[in-house]
Design brief:
Length: 292
């Protein structure tokens, strides 16, 4: 499976930092997510058979992590959800703000988002390429839910420069990006992305004309990544068990939830303090405010 491949690639090929993304492969991966898996694919839960509850859990925890930033946007504000996927965050914005534009490249994701957002008259879902088709502003908030990780550095800088000109006075850009503790890794194969460390993201923001971003660690992502890597370990070491199993995926998730004080709080924080890189991927929220 794609996720298993890219994780193994990261562990075994630290020299991958010089590779460039093949955008056709990136697009094909997300386009392959049909209507039944678009939501879980947009939150990277489908490859490990994790239950839908894991997505709701992560989304709720992420929302609380940046609630203060979202509260700064007035209810009458206009929001751009860039790379909106199947519309999970678009729905959150639609419940908070008067006008929301969701923008997505994958046709299957667009279809899923339009279905989800049908009851919300203030929402428009647009299909297009962020490198050429970004809607005109001004916007009171621009949200990128894991988009720069699918762009090479140069394209990320160009996109952020164009977004800067689409911000209303006092508005900001919020990004949620998967990161690594050190350097940059670009896995190849069926799933392609760029995993940068926080410092490299700050370099990109500076090149795009922004002051240093505000930063918050996304532990909700870490929690889900713990489950993802345990599923991958089971597939590798317990091959007598079925690789694809909704039951085993759900069992892994709910056992971790029962053990939450240890599995989802103490363990990742302790390992981070000890500088032990597990789970192998992290995630951070960044807030870019041109006026600061």
């Amino acid at each position: 499976m794609a996720r298993s491949y890219h994780l193994n690639f990261i562990l075994n090929n630290p020299s991958s930092s010089g590779r460039r993304l093949n955008y056709a492969v990136v697009r094909r991966y997300f386009q392959a997510a049909g209507s039944n898996t678009a939501a879980t694919a947009s939150y990277m839960a489908h490859e490990q058979n994790l239950p839908e509850n894991s997505i709701h859990y992560r989304l709720g925890k992420e929302l609380s992590t940046i609630a203060e930033w979202l509260d700064a946007v007035p209810p009458e504000g206009r929001v751009l959800d860039l790379g909106c996927g199947a519309g999970s965050w678009t729905k959150i914005f639609a419940n908070r703000y008067d006008s929301v534009v969701g923008f997505e490249q994958s046709a299957s994701m667009v279809a899923a988002a339009r279905t989800l957002m049908a009851p919300f008259p203030g929402v428009e879902i647009i299909e297009g390429d962020v490198r050429t088709d970004i809607p005109d502003g001004p916007f009171d908030l621009i949200f990128l839910g894991g988009l720069c990780m699918y762009l090479d550095d140069e394209d990320a800088v160009v996109m952020l420069r164009s977004l800067k000109g689409r911000l209303a006075p006092g508005a900001s850009i919020v990004l949620r990006e998967t990161t690594v503790p050190q350097g940059k890794l670009t896995p190849s194969g069926e799933y392609q992305a760029v995993y940068r460390n926080v410092s490299l993201y700050q370099d990109i923001f500076r090149e795009a004309g922004f002051p240093p971003a505000q930063l918050r660690r996304n532990y909700a992502y870490t929690n889900m990544e713990v489950a993802v890597e345990l599923v991958e370990a089971r597939r590798k070491h317990l091959r007598f068990l079925p690789a694809q199993s909704n039951f085993l995926g759900a069992l892994t998730w709910y056992l971790l939830r029962v053990l939450t004080p240890l599995s989802f709080w103490l363990l990742p924080r302790t390992l981070s303090r000890l500088q032990i890189n597990w789970p192998h991927l992290q995630n951070h929220f960044f807030r870019l405010s041109p006026s600061e």
